[in-house]
Amino acid sequence: MPTAIVTGQQVPGSSLENDLRSLGFDVRLAADATEAQVLLSAVPAGDRVALVDGRFVGHPHALRLGLTDPRFPLAAVPGAVTAQPAARPALARAVACGTSTGGGTAVAVDSLADRVVAALVADGGDVHRPELGSLVAAVPADPQTRNEARQAVAAVDDEAVRLKSAVKSRDGFFTTFFISPYSRYLARWCARRGLTPNQVTTASLVTALIAAGCAATGTRGGFIAAGALLIASFVLDCTDGQLARYALKYSTLGAWLDATFDRAKEYAYYAGLALGAARGGDDVWALALGAMILQTCRHVVDFSFNEANTGDLAATASTSPTAALSDRLDTVGWTVWARRMIVLPIGERWAMIAVLTAVTTPRITFYALLVGCAFAAAYTTAGRVLRSVTRRTGRTDRAARALADLADSGPLAETVKGLVKRGLPGLAVPAVAFVGGAAVVVCSALTDFGGVLPVIATLGYVLTSALAVARPLTGALDWLVPPCFRAAEYGTVLALAANAGVNGALPAAFGLVAAVAYHHYDTVYRIRGNAGAPPAWLVRTIGGHEGRTVLVTVLAAVLTAPQFTVALTVLAVAVALLVLTESIRFWVAAHQGGAPAVHDEGEPA
């Protein structure tokens, strides 16, 4: 149990102790700084500890934000400071400094907690200070200011602020106006009944899988039920994040579940629609796979661009004139919502899919999805290309490492890369990656099944892939390299399976692309969590993007169509087992090992 040490003179009638206990703290009282230091040393090393001035006046939610957020080792609000176990030594040093004569930096009111914060900062500590907005957190110096602070507390509805802050400040139009107005109350209902965000995330997944099952029936009633359940799943998907923010229950495992389950839900629903259409005599597996490929490539564009512009470049990201124009457009109300809807984020996308499922056919649903996602991809990619070519700064080594990890190069590309003496200049890098990928996809699509031309094109693809990553990816448009690789690999699998012309080939290809896409998403989430890329043995074992592309084209050339279908199925199962086993092992170990808690704010699209 976390411990809160309340220091100094207690104020009669104060609710401070009750507020701290309601937040889960075991409250200890210290008459002075020396006693606080003794109590601090007695708290078990594995427990969170907080120092709170006995004169503190403020909202309970201000204390909650300052003292219970699991994402930050050190955090503080005026009159209170907390440290998680990893930061306990720094807190102990700061308390020792604060108890010494003249220790710390001058503060407005002589408060041990504030002196400790000043000492932590002077010692190089990264102390998180939450944005309180209208919430009050203060240590009044005299009765008059205390009364004024209490009046300010009474003037603001603590619970209303907490509910409002549970909703993301930036979200899509559909989510903002059609989901969040009531899902926040569902999040509070879940919090008051002890439900966790992970439980709600799981409920959202189960609901979406049931929706996919209803769509797979192929009946009008099943399609209507599927659309309704998909919206219900999205409501729960919004609720889990709002519950995490409302109750400050963030976790490494929760972020991973939230992100990966979103992909699993959407792609399982695509499969359900394809199965339902097949029951009605309409084969739309190629459309379903195309929609999954397009959506995944959209996300890879987002992830690659964002990773290329993080780290030391965050402060200079606005040096592009295009970025400056975008910032100006965000100051005009209607353009904000229009631009958010154009990119077809998850809320708008799922709403469109749900409505079209209920009132039209799977084929029409996929056509609309492909057109909408293609337009959104063109819009976002064009904007990011303009930002990149007009920016006036370079990219960091961290960004180059992240892009190299996202490239997912295997043994073949790495071997050829080692033979290359010099890398390509400037814009030739993404150009070569695009040309090599486009060549193998076009050859696979236009060659009759069993031809050798795709194999020859794939050997060229290995060379172009190696050339693209021969030097660090620090060029203006080098972030386009990973999306080109994804489109090449996935598109080749789609083209070969479609040309096979036998039942089961496209569903098997759908399974293979889903397994590989999971690996690529998992790579993104590891990079986001500062955990690095998946282990090298995994990338080598599953071949890298170029190795898998070579293998699939060779299988298509040497096997019959039915044998190729079996081979795709076996490959899909093998890749899925490997990547899922390693991914689950990693994220569970990270969660149990006390990795910093995070929460994914949803897809950037």
UniProtKB/TrEMBL annotation:
An annotated GO cellular component: membrane
GO MF, one annotated term: phosphotransferase activity, for other substituted phosphate groups
Transmembrane in keyword set: yes
A biological-process GO annotation: phospholipid biosynthetic process
Keywords on record: Membrane, Transferase, Transmembrane, Transmembrane helix
PROSITE patterns: CDP_ALCOHOL_P_TRANSF
Transmembrane intervals: 364-386, 427-447, 459-481, 493-518, 550-580
Record family assignment: Belongs to the CDP-alcohol phosphatidyltransferase class-I family.
Official protein name in the record: Transferase
